[in-house]
Amino acid sequence: MKMRSIGSFIASLRKANGMTQQEVADRLLVSNKTVSKWERNESYPDITLIPVIAEMFDVTSDEIINGGRISKDNLNTANKNSKTEKQTKRLFDTTRTKFKNMSAIALALVLLGLISLFTIAYSTHRPIIGFGVFLVFALSSVILQVIHINLSHLTLNNNDLLQEFNEELPVLRKQLNTYSFYVFFGNIVAVIFALPFIIVRDAYNLNSVISMNSYFLLVPFLLLISFFIWCGLLSIFQHKIVKNKLENQCLSVYNKIKSINTL
Length: 263
Fold this sequence. Notes:
single chain; transmembrane; 0% strand; DNA binding; mainly alpha; Transcriptional regulator with XRE-family HTH domain; transmembrane helix; 2 domains; DNA-binding
């Protein structure tokens, strides 16, 4: 707060309204000495009193804090900026929530495909058909995620207003990429758990199905493969981040050298 501006502004408002310090004090339930200290710039009003003072003198709280009248143009600009910031935050939240829900749907699709594979394979003894149905669900999941991630990034990149929020935008992009990473990894794991229905069977009997006991014996091995793939993807992802940081640092050094040579 600007103590000098606030005190002087309150004093001018009081005099303009023909009020004494005691009358102001009575309205605000404080002592006249307190009001006197405000006007002498020895202290300033409690933040909870700002709206009350503003209402009493028919001004805005922003004007009290500003220590003077705010022109309509500046007030409209401030309101517009505040409204824009709220709208942008709402857009970020909506994009994040919508993308999170779509990612959940994509994961649900591949899970439904895996359940369909189990159901068809063990109920009809046609693992090939079951695997085909699974692939349809898995591909639908991947296509849905790819389309949605591209549309989301396209929306963020083509909106000039969002580009002004340099801190929030990279965080949102990272969250969207993280959701997509989980979806793609979920599809990879689903394929790993579906492959035994095609690989482990009688080559001369298309309708043969791996027994449940044999499949459950493979589960630890399948989980181990999934774990190694998870570690591999994370290492690649981390390497990409490190690589990008190094490239940015090299570019920064290059620009500095270029600027020195220009001088």
